[in-house]
Amino acid sequence: MWINKHGAVDPRMPFGGAKQSGYGLEFGTEGLKHLAQPQVINY
């Protein structure tokens, strides 16, 4: 969190992402698809 310092970036943040969403590469919709492992569970 920054005060009076808009546009500041943390060097640990990944580059890229979808437009200006602020989610970065890992936490956007496309990034979560790579982490998710969909499965079907029947009882």
UniProtKB/TrEMBL annotation:
<dbReference type="InterPro" id="IPR016162">
    <property type="entry name" value="Ald_DH_N"/>
</dbReference>
<dbReference type="InterPro" id="IPR016163">
    <property type="entry name" value="Ald_DH_C"/>
</dbReference>
<protein>
    <recommendedName>
        <fullName>Aldehyde dehydrogenase domain-containing protein</fullName>
    </recommendedName>
</protein>
<dbReference type="Pfam" id="PF00171">
    <property type="entry name" value="Aldedh"/>
</dbReference>
<dbReference type="InterPro" id="IPR015590">
    <property type="entry name" value="Aldehyde_DH_dom"/>
</dbReference>
<keyword id="KW-0560">Oxidoreductase</keyword>
<dbReference type="InterPro" id="IPR016161">
    <property type="entry name" value="Ald_DH/histidinol_DH"/>
</dbReference>
<dbReference type="GO" id="GO:0016620">
    <property type="term" value="F:oxidoreductase activity, acting on the aldehyde or oxo group of donors, NAD or NADP as acceptor"/>
</dbReference>
<feature type="domain" description="Aldehyde dehydrogenase">
    <location>
        <begin position="1"/>
        <end position="40"/>
    </location>
</feature>
